[in-house]
Design brief:
Length: 186
C-alpha cells in the first residue's frame, strides 16, 4: 500500500515523508498534529474524528472482513447481522469492526494480539472472531478453524483538516492510477 500511496501522492504533486508506526500511535500522532495523514483508515474512523481529519473519497484499498470460527458455526453466518446472538472477538484498535458490532448491539471482546484472538476462539470464550482477510496469514495454520467472508471494508487516505484542499487532487490521482493499473476493485 505504501507504494500505491507514493504513486498517488506524487501524482498529485506532493512530496511526502513516510513513517511506519502502530495503529494507535498513528492515531495519536494525527490527532495532535505530529502526522499530516495516514494511508490506511476506514471512513468510520474518519467520521469518528471529523473534527480533525478529512478522507479521500476513492478508497486506496479494499479488503474483506472474515469471520473466524470453529467448523460447526459456518451455516449460520452470512452477514454482520448474523452475529447478533454471538460472542465476538476482535483485535484491539479495529475501529471498523467495533463500530459495526456496536450498531448491532454487540459488545465485542477485545484481544491485544493475534495469539489472544485465536485463544478466545479455540477455548470457546467466543463464538466467532472478525479480522481482515489480508491479516489471515498472521493467524498461522489452524486446522480446526474456518473462515467466511462477511463484509467488504474500504481503506482511505486521511489527512488532517488543514490539508483539505489536497483532497480533490489526491482523489483524481488515485482514480487515474487505479484505472491505469486495473486496481479499481482493490
Amino acid at each position: 500500500m505504501k507504494t500505491l500511496g507514493q504513486f498517488v501522492l506524487q501524482g498529485a504533486g506532493q512530496c511526502v515523508e513516510y513513517i511506519e508506526a502502530p495503529v494507535k500511535r498513528t492515531e495519536a500522532l494525527i490527532r495532535n498534529g505530529m502526522l499530516d495523514g495516514d494511508l490506511m483508515r476506514t471512513k468510520i474512523w474518519a467520521d469518528q474524528n471529523v473534527d480533525t481529519v478529512v478522507y479521500v473519497p476513492t478508497p486506496l484499498y479494499q479488503d474483506e472482513i472474515v469471520a473466524v470460527f470453529v467448523k460447526p458455526l459456518s451455516q449460520s453466518l452470512g452477514s454482520l447481522n448474523d452475529l447478533r446472538s454471538k460472542r465476538v472477538v476482535i483485535t484491539s484498535g479495529h475501529r471498523w469492526a467495533e463500530a459495526q458490532l456496536m450498531q448491532r448491539g454487540i459488545t465485542p471482546v477485545m484481544a491485544s494480539t493475534y495469539g489472544h484472538f485465536m485463544e478466545h476462539i479455540h477455548f470457546g470464550k467466543v463464538d466467532v472472531g472478525l479480522i481482515e482477510k489480508s491479516s489471515l496469514p498472521m493467524l498461522g495454520e489452524e486446522p480446526n478453524v474456518m473462515t467466511k467472508v462477511i463484509s467488504p471494508i474500504q481503506f482511505h487516505i486521511v489527512l488532517r483538516k488543514e490539508h483539505e484542499d489536497l483532497v480533490p487532487s489526491l482523489d483524481t490521482a488515485l482514480k487515474r492510477i487505479k484505472a491505469q493499473f486495473g486496481l479499481m476493485q482493490n
